[in-house]
């Protein structure tokens, strides 16, 4: 996961926005910063909603990202199963599976069978990708770009 954009100086930004609550001036950078710290320490949660962060993920399973996207994230984009061809899908393997060669072989066989069947239904039977996508596993890797505020990030 990487940050692709963030509110510069988020604590000072919180302090600047919160100045309206206290009828305070914004011309002293130290006071603005201290006000932001105070807001965070006093759990004045709404003020932390003004600082935003945009993340990009690319190494997580669809299952993991589904849990993340259940959060109060304001804006999100995810790899589309309607438009992307997943015949060569990459998938996540949990340690509990990858640590046992026999179990990993079974797991890999299932994932490869899904990929082969996915390709066959599209190419040999002309089934639309969006319909074949119903068989894609939650363990396949997906990509998401999402924007959240500091309050939500702390919650996550």
List the helices and strands and how they pair.
Layout: E1 2-6, H1 10-22, H2 29-41, E2 52-61, H3 62-69, E3 75-78, H4 95-98, H5 101-123, H6 129-132, E4 141-149, H7 150-155
Antiparallel strand pairs: 1-2, 2-4, 3-4
Helix pairs in contact: 1-2
Could you characterize what this model shows?
The protein is α+β, with helices and mostly antiparallel strands and 156 residues long. It folds into two domains: 1-81 and 140-156, Gyrase A, domain 2 (2-Layer Sandwich), CATH 3.30.1360; 82-135, no CATH class. 46% of the residues lie in helices and 18% in strands. It contains seven helices and four strands, in the order E-H-H-E-H-E-H-H-H-E-H. The chain has a four-stranded antiparallel β-sheet. The longest helix has 23 residues, at 101-123. The chain is elongated and about 70 Å long. The two termini are 14 Å apart. The mean pLDDT is 94.
Keywords:
156 residues; alpha+beta; Gyrase A, domain 2; four-stranded antiparallel β-sheet; 7 helices; 4 strands
What is the CA–CA distance across the termini?
14 Å
Structural class: alpha+beta
Q: What's the number of domains?
A: 2
**Share in β-strands:** 15-25%
Task: Pick out the low-confidence regions.
Answer: none
Question: Which overall shape is indicated by the principal axes computed on the Cα atoms?
Answer: elongated
Specify the number of helices. 7
Q: How much is the radius of gyration in Å? A: 22 Å
Major sheet strand order: 1-2-4-3
Helix content: 40-55%
> Which CATH-level-2 architecture of the largest domain?
2-Layer Sandwich
**Largest pleated sheet:** 4 strands, antiparallel
The CATH class name of the largest domain reads Alpha Beta
Number of strands: 4
Note the run of SSEs as H and E.
Answer: EHHEHEHHHEH
Overall residue-averaged pLDDT value:
94
């Amino acid at each position: 996961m990487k940050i692709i954009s963030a509110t510069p100086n988020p604590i000072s930004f919180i302090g600047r926005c919160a100045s309206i609550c206290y009828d305070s001036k914004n011309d002293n950078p130290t006071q603005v910063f201290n006000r932001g710290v105070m807001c965070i320490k006093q759990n004045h949660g709404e003020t932390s909603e003004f600082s935003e962060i945009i993340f990009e993920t690319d190494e997580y399973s669809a299952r993991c990202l589904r849990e993340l996207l259940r959060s109060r994230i304001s804006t999100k984009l995810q790899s589309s199963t309607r438009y992307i061809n997943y015949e060569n899908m990459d998938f996540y393997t949990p340690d509990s599976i990858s640590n046992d060669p026999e179990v990993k072989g079974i797991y890999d066989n299932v994932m490869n069978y899904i990929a082969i069947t996915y390709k066959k239904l599209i190419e040999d039977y002309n089934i639309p990708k969006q319909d074949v996508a119903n068989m894609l596993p939650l363990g396949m890797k997906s990509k998401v770009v999402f924007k959240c505020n500091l309050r939500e990030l702390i919650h996550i």
